[in-house]
Amino acid sequence: MGVSLKDIAKRAGVSVATVSNVVNGYRPVAEATRERVRQAIDELGYSPNLSARHLRNGRTGIIALAIPELNNPYFAELADAAIREAGLHGYTVLLDYTDGDREKELLVSQGFRAQVIDGLILSPVQLRRADVLSRTSETPMVLVGEGVYNVPYDHIAIDNVAASVAAMTHLLGLGRRRIAFVGAQSDVNRQPAQLRLLGYQEALSGAGLSYDPGLVVTTDYFGRSDGAAGLRRLMALPEPPDAVFAYNDLIAIGVLRAAVELGLRVPDDIAVVGFDDIDEGRYSNPTLTTISPDKADIGRRAVAALIGRLDGSREAEPEEVQVPFELVTRESTLGHPEPG
Amino acid sequence: MGVSLKDIAKRAGVSVATVSNVVNGYRPVAEATRERVRQAIDELGYSPNLSARHLRNGRTGIIALAIPELNNPYFAELADAAIREAGLHGYTVLLDYTDGDREKELLVSQGFRAQVIDGLILSPVQLRRADVLSRTSETPMVLVGEGVYNVPYDHIAIDNVAASVAAMTHLLGLGRRRIAFVGAQSDVNRQPAQLRLLGYQEALSGAGLSYDPGLVVTTDYFGRSDGAAGLRRLMALPEPPDAVFAYNDLIAIGVLRAAVELGLRVPDDIAVVGFDDIDEGRYSNPTLTTISPDKADIGRRAVAALIGRLDGSREAEPEEVQVPFELVTRESTLGHPEPG
């Protein structure tokens, strides 16, 4: 194995972040400290030249983060957290953009570009458990999100069923009885949508309400326009809903917009809950009640788990790490405060 | 110089995209075509192994795109366009995240990580003209956005002054006379804010209105919260404004939110125009009138210019390329249509 920043930090008696600052020049480091780090680098034979490092020890200092969407702020916020965390450890993040396409997810997972990356963080959408189990690439991988469970890789996610039950319990507690779900997927391999729909069904059942498939809107994609179209379909029903639980915040924001266009009052006529807690929902009119996964924590833990595998400090069996979430209640369910 | 995908495409008599599909496996290619491409690859001595390619001809197939913000959808949409265009040419995009920090922009520009990239597309925020002129790195670079002008690099941008004049002319045409500008920057090296403020001033002058510095709000950053705080400050003035021209859409969306909280009607009490045309402004309540730069065109042209420099097909002197923009009028200036 090659020499890692951690090895140098240990030898020099400084933090990994300090070594990274010396090597990458991110921040000024006191001359005496810099000299200690340089000496440790010389003694251990580490070279910050990426090509030389790559040839000598099979490392490039680059980890890939493969996400399905750039235009969804959820992934931008997640990537932001991962990039900052990786930077602290002296790693650069290469963003891979899978477009939620199964073929691209397979390519990334199977080691496409393995020559230039030390490890991979993958947020799969369509990848199946069997795909992951049959993976032959030896590039360390960490999974994030709800795509695949029970695989021999570290996996960082929130409990999607519990989160959906929390969203539904809030709506039920406000007296809503005809609650729609917008954002179901026709492809049953799209796990997150399945898990959130499961939570929706569980909560209905727990409240003694029957499940009406007519209140579940399947969408092609996960965007604002899908939410707007979904509400229009629902409001054309003989018995329209009094609330919407949306698969994600973008869909919920499309629902809010369509409500205005349809002349509906939110939450009086229709209450809306999203999922993701993107910044946009804190400034929408009305502001959006939503499930808030701890995105910064997901990014941090995914990077930490991967780097732990790379530098050998994480040797335990791969584990499923559950990150906390919370329900954030705002105007889309609680109503507008008086202006002031 | 090494062998490029273009060389192979020419030899095999197919498009660069087809070669890329064969080499990278993005999409299925008919067996006969695939064989022709493989033969051309063998004849020309091209190797898709990135490390080997790097050693042999100094190319990695990776271009870096350095952007200041991941959480601003403007840059996500721009990156999206660049990634798609680069993929068509067989290039992968490495996202560099400068955080709008001058030191990081200098690092990126001066060749940080030059070993792993073939070229760089940089959207500078604080980098100065002198910094660019004194650049010694030989890695080909293309600039996007309004950070730096008159430098010997291809530069893709819109005409910010003209765009701002267009936004102001729209507000003036609606009869607004006390128009505020939200998003000025105290650092005069922040060019885009300076240019948009210049357009604001030019339009006022053209309409025979005097410039009131009290209507210009300087913000620390470019986010929704800055816009919300800005409107609160403006509405506390003895003579509050009747319109806001915001530096960008995120600031404008913060203004829209604060207007609701202050009990103001948009556009009756205050009309709002943004800049960027991010998707969010198409679904906000009210929808946002904005300047729409052709982001897809910026991404495409930046990648095309860079690849042209890399493969030698672009040999002309570096040029300033102006990309079109348009004013998109929506509810935040025109008012709400009847629900329906």
From TrEMBL, chains A, B:
SMART domains in the cross-refs: HTH_LACI (SM00354)
CDD domains, per the entry: HTH_LacI, PBP1_LacI_sugar_binding-like
The HTH lacI-type domain, residue ranges: 3-57
Any Pfam family matching the protein: LacI
Organism superkingdom: Bacteria
PANTHER family: LACI-RELATED TRANSCRIPTIONAL REPRESSOR, LACTOSE OPERON REPRESSOR
UniProt-recorded Gene Ontology molecular function terms: DNA-binding transcription factor activity; transcription cis-regulatory region binding
Keywords (A to Z) from UniProt: DNA-binding, Transcription, Transcription regulation
UniProt KW Lipid metabolism keyword: no
Protein name as annotated: LacI family transcriptional regulator
Gene3D superfamilies: 3.40.50.2300, lambda repressor-like DNA-binding domains (1.10.260.40)
